[in-house]
Amino acid sequence: xxxLKGSSGQKNQADNRRKxxxxxxxxxxxxxxxxxxxxxxxxxxxxxxxxxxxxxxxKKDILAExxxxxxxxxxxxxxxxxxxxxxxxxxxxxLRSRMRSLENNTNLMKVCFYEAQxxxxxxxxxxxxxxxxxxSVAEAFFQTAIDRGVYRKMxxxxxxxxxxxxxxxxxxxxxxxGGAAEGPQALDEDEMVRGISDIFLxxxxxxx
Length: 208
Hints:
Homeodomain-like_sf; Tet_transcr_reg_TetR-rel_C_sf; TetR_C_Proteobacteria; DNA-binding transcription factor activity
């Protein structure tokens, strides 16, 4: 009986923690971190405000967990896609798949890309705990492509940073930034993906 009670209590704790994180993600994306009091998070999650502080010391700790876990998800999924590429030149399909995933997770994108920028220490934490590790894996991936003669010889760390940088910039859009839709000259998704892939693989100089 005690085992069943313990199991039930652990499930309730996990459920409450998940409710807090889910509610915070939605509210931070809609109203911003500064515009979201913990009382509103509690109301959205269907719990008392005091319950929040049983799981998180403060609102900033909620943001830190959302951002860190969010970046892990975004970049780990990207690396998984890279590892399953049919060959080292099929960058377009990887970017298309990942960008569609990002479009379906606009709240996560807004919080990871925008809200976290207000806290330098959080940016540093994400960089040291997530970005550096992902860069290391991506560097090894591109080193293999260089060793096999698919890519020309250059610093694989530079290649990894350029690739991840292009991917992240492509993730910015009007939905992520909370602005109005782009004008008629905006690139559609396919054109954006083709352009990024072409520039990454072939550069921007005209063929001589």
